[in-house]
Write a structure and sequence with these properties.
Layout (H helix, E strand, L loop, with lengths): L8 H11 L1 H10 L11 H12 L2 E6 L5 H7 L3 H11 L4 E6 L10 H6 L5 E4 L1 H4 L18 H9 L2 H14 L1 E16 L18 E4 L3 H9 L3 E4 L2 H10 L4 E4 L1 H6 L6 E19 H4 L4 H30 L10 H5 L2 E3 L3 H11 L5 H15 L3 H12 L12
Parallel strand pairs: 1-2, 1-3, 5-6, 5-7, 8-9
Antiparallel strand pairs: 3-8, 4-7, 4-8
Helix pairs in contact: 1-2, 2-3, 5-14
């Protein structure tokens, strides 16, 4: 058996110079057999050659995403990076900076706009502070389910009404989105109480909201008391009673460990809840056409497969799916899922829709209309009507 030998300092420098620091660090930890390069594992050789070959090295601020919560969220960020690198045959190398080490949900957009990062991810609601138009899909009760808004993102209509506006206004190229619909999550104060199935049961509750005009408007229409609270403070806020409830999507709630302070998930599904991945237009525009196509094909494939991944997570891990297993977080944590009937959801829509609350959304409509140069809500409403009730239609929006 060939013996491993510790690397000398000269060996480490040589490997790092020829094949990249990642290969050198691995080789230092693992040792080598029979010489510097031949002793590296196939994995390290592959990584080393990729680093040597890469023409484009990009930094991806994946916000709060981590391998642990990705199992519940299914944002697809790690799959997307792998696809880009594989489809580009190693010409693109992407460094994923996750776990809030590169940016927070509220700062990823700013750092991509300023080219501190090349790629970022965030929920549109959190992006809204630096990219106000990012919330243009999120009108309460515009979409009836996640399939509808994802079909919009797959459609060519998304270019005119969303993607092109974000590019022109903020110099970013939206790549893809993945997620669910936002529900109202009730804290432990509601343990042992009947399932909430009507707006009347929400009145007066203190609800933690994303710092968002859309979500604030929804809470006001339900006669709840909206309280902006940082995501990092939500767990303690629900424990202490500072807030009675929170709005988010189920995968995010359990992915970030909220199950210990939740009693009910009220399936209102009032607004999209998803992560959007986007790239600086300054970076994207420098790519040759074949690399641009790689990014679009990878985004398309990721959005399609992540859709199925969310369904799987809902049933196997989270517990809000159509056929949840007995081992889901909801089951183990005794979280009731108030799965509303269509008639019950219609009662929420009748009270909380944009059309029923023009005074609440007037300022938001004017602001977004000014950015896009059109009646944004009206145009989105027309698109939503065309997509209502249709199965997933993964079209290529850029061709």
């Amino acid at each position: 058996m060939r013996q491993t030998q510790p690397l000398s300092r000269a060996d480490q420098v040589n490997i790092a110079r020829r094949f990249g620091l990642k290969a050198a660090l691995f080789a230092t930890a693992a040792g080598v057999t029979g010489g510097i390069v031949p002793g590296l594992s196939n994995f390290v050789m592959k990584e080393a050659n990729a680093q040597e070959k890469a023409k484009y090295r990009l930094r991806f601020g994946a916000s709060v995403i981590s391998p642990t919560n990705e199992a519940y969220l299914r944002t697809g960020v790690y799959d997307f990076v792998k696809l880009v690198e594989e489809k580009s045959n190693g010409e693109v190398a992407i460094q994923v900076i996750d776990k809030s080490q590169g940016c927070a949900e509220t700062t990823c957009g700013e750092r991509v706009i300023n080219n501190v990062l090349h790629i970022g991810s965030s929920s549109p609601q959190n992006l809204g502070s630096v990219m106000p138009y990012s919330i243009a899909l999120d009108w309460p009760f515009l979409w009836r389910d996640r399939t509808e808004y994802l079909n919009f993102l797959f459609s060519k209509e998304s270019n005119r009404l969303y993607r092109d506006v974000l590019r022109k206004a903020y110099n970013v190229v939206p790549l893809y989105g993945s997620g669910e619909m936002r529900n109202v999550m009730m804290g432990l104060k509601y343990s042992g109480k009947p399932n909430i199935v009507s707006p009347a049961a929400l009145q007066g509750a203190k609800i933690r909201i994303t710092n968002s005009e859309m979500i604030s408007g929804f809470a006001q229409s339900m006669k709840m008391n909206p309280i902006p609270l940082a995501w990092t403070e939500l767990l303690e806020g629900l424990k202490s009673g500072v807030v009675d409830a929170a709005e988010t999507w189920p995968g995010a709630a359990v992915g970030f460990g909220m199950q210990s302070v939740l009693a009910q998930d009220v399936g209102v599904e009032f607004s999209p809840g998803f992560e959007m991945v986007f790239i600086s237009a300054s970076t994207f525009d420098k790519f040759p056409d074949k690399i641009k196509t790689v990014f679009m094909e990878a985004a398309h494939e990721t959005m399609r497969t992540a859709y199925d991944g969310v369904t799987e997570a809902q049933n196997k891990l989270v517990g809000n799916g159509a056929n949840p297993s007995a081992d889901t977080v909801y089951a183990k944590s005794n979280i009731k899922h108030s799965r509303l009937t269509e008639a019950q959801r219609e009662e929420f829509r009748a009270i909380g829709s944009v059309d029923k609350n023009p005074q609440i959304y007037d300022a938001t409509r004017k602001k977004l209309d000014q950015i896009a140069g059109l009646d944004v809500y009206g145009a989105m409403k027309e698109s939503a009507a065309k997509l209502a009730g249709k199965p997933l239609q993964p079209n290529k929006w850029w061709v």
